[in-house]
Amino acid sequence: MRGLLLIVFFLPLVTAAQKPAPDFEELFRRAPAFNAQWDTLEIFAYRNVPLEDLPDVIELQICDSLRRDFCPPVTGRVLSKYGPRGRRPHQGTDIQVAYGQPIHAAFDGIVRWSRWNRGGFGNVVIVRHPNGLETYYAHLSGRAVKANDYVTAGQVIGYGGRTGRAFGNHLHFEMRYCDQSFDSERLIDFVTGELREHFFELHKDYFSIRSRF
Ligand SMILES: [Zn+2]
Fold first, then answer.
1. How far is the CA of 180 from the centre of ligand 1 (A)?
2. What share of the chain is helix, strand, coil (3-state, %, to 5)?
3. Which of 95, 125, 131, 170 is 20 to 30 Å apart from 141, CA to CA?
């Protein structure tokens, strides 16, 4: 009797072993976005891709509506928007966070960069997504991932803080395509945490610092 129970118990395991599930992570890593201009040492990876070479409109699938593959990095008050700001234009969106608050990956992707940056970002994590977009998470008090880690939307990639050039705790969040920044509020409502577009036409003129949502 005990023998029979063991057989019944192990049967599903044997079946599973005979038919291995496709390695999603491995398939994901083969996406073109992860196999060109991949640099885990330089903060900007597309130095040899000038803005002039980019098409006027880049069509991006942001989210597969069948899967829950978006998560706001944080929700909260926007303290400072994308736009011109004195000598140093503000190329991201600042969102209020508490010290140590978990910061989430916005979409599935692979961590391209996770380091300390002397240029003002402090502790920063950069995730590249399969559509080629990169998301930047800066001023973190701590980083929870390392370069080449596979992350899923919603995974904690770091913790809120004020490292680098920051006067108070906030998340400096950027979206870039081929190193070119655009206003992330075009895609994310940081107050409600909603994704505004599932399919996005990224126009070249959005890369202007004066082009705001
Ligand atoms: Zn900022």
1. 16
2. 15, 30, 50
3. 131
Calculate how far, in angstroms, residue 5's C-alpha sits from the geometric centre of ligand 1: 61
Q: What is the pLDDT of residues 109-143, one digit of tens each?
A: 999 999 999 999 999 999 999 999 999 999 999 99
User: Which pair of structure tokens corresponds to residue 52?
Assistant: 């002039």
CA of 121 to the centre of ligand 1 (A): 8
Q: How far is the CA of 165 from the centre of ligand 1 (A)?
A: 9
Instruction: Tell me the CA–centroid distance for residue 86 and ligand 1, in Å.
Output: 13
Query: Ligand 1 mean position to 139 CA, how many Å?
Result: 9
Query: What is the distance between the alpha carbons of residues 36 and 67, in angstroms, rounded to a whole number?
Result: 26
Q: How far is the CA of 20 from the centre of ligand 1 (A)?
A: 45
Domain that holds residue 154: 32-207
What one-character DSSP code corresponds to residue 16?
H
Q: Does residue 27 belong to any structural domain of this protein?
A: no
Number of domains observed in the structure of the chain:
1
Residue 130 lies in a domain: yes
